[in-house]
Amino acid sequence: MNQERIAGEFREGMPFLGSHLWIDFLNTTPVIKGMALDLIESDEAVNRWAVQANIDLSASDDSDSVADLHALRARLARAFDLLAASKPVPRETIDDINKRIDRSGMRLNLVERDGLPILEERVMLVGPPVATAIAWDFAQFLGHFDPERMRHCANPACTIQFYDIGKNNRRRWCTMSICGNRDKVAHYRVRKAGTAV
Description:
Helix content is about 40%, strand content about 15%. It is of the alpha+beta class and about 200 residues long. It is globular, with a radius of gyration of 19 Å.
């Protein structure tokens, strides 16, 4: 698997705002106009999400189970909150992640670029493609994360979570184009109503 980020906050209407694949996976239960959605509710929906997440489904003979992905998502949602609070992740979660990635790993490969040999690291994932890619991303995340950068959107009606990769670590909203602008408009209306009295 070569997991490159695809640009764009929303792809085919799906949010990719988490800054890490496993957090984007958590965000597959957004609330849109007051209605909770499940973006991985069926095999077809899983495939659509995987394509937008740049997960190569053809690279594996295994297939993902919707029920297994829902269980993984619930387990990782709990882990997100624990990590953000600087608390340990349950042993069962670590064991589950290890089981999912135990046959996967980094492979070194020489490739040629501009006539010169370059040593390249490639992630080789073995197992159900979506669950394995999510588990691998989560495992890598644990090696370098800062709990203070793990957040829920400041809009209480929003369910999006993210990891703030900004230099100043001041991100409050899932995206300024939606929740941030709503907050600005609400504050503007309050100020305008206060001056009109």
